[in-house]
Design goal:
It is built from five helices and four strands, in the order H-E-E-E-H-E-H-H-H. It has 160 residues and is of the alpha+beta class. The chain has a four-stranded mixed β-sheet, with no helix packed on it. 14% of the residues are buried.
Length: 160
Amino acid sequence: MNTAKDYKFPNIDISIVLYDAYMELMPEYFWEKGIYKDLRFCVDIYGSKQFELFENEYWLSIKECNSPIEQYDISLIPIENNIFHKIPGYKISFAKRTDYKSYISNSNIRDWIIQSYNAFIYNRGYDKGSQSMMHTNSYRFGYYILHPVELIKKLMKKEI
């Protein structure tokens, strides 16, 4: 049963979205959106790239910056949307490479981003789901098995 399979992979030459080895959008995608068109810059939104490895004159990064040309927030998900929609803030900076510090002063910035995403997901989806689940009979049954004192209180008040 060794039959040849015909796999169809997307053509990278016509792809609109390309990522680099650090899983960051390539500058060409920003150019397509009219952002910093024709400027050679390095995208380092997650702060994981080392300055020594890249020679670009401009950077778009979350690293601390002394003289940003423009700055954006990280309130939208994915984070790149803050740049596409020009959401002002102080987390992501576009500046000359020489204006950046080579490190992230807040070593927990990635944790902060993940925590923000988790809060967003919790507030939007999980919270609604848990609220609707709490009104089901199976939840109430399990709750009273785990909390028999609460069941006794309700029985005494005749609220069941």
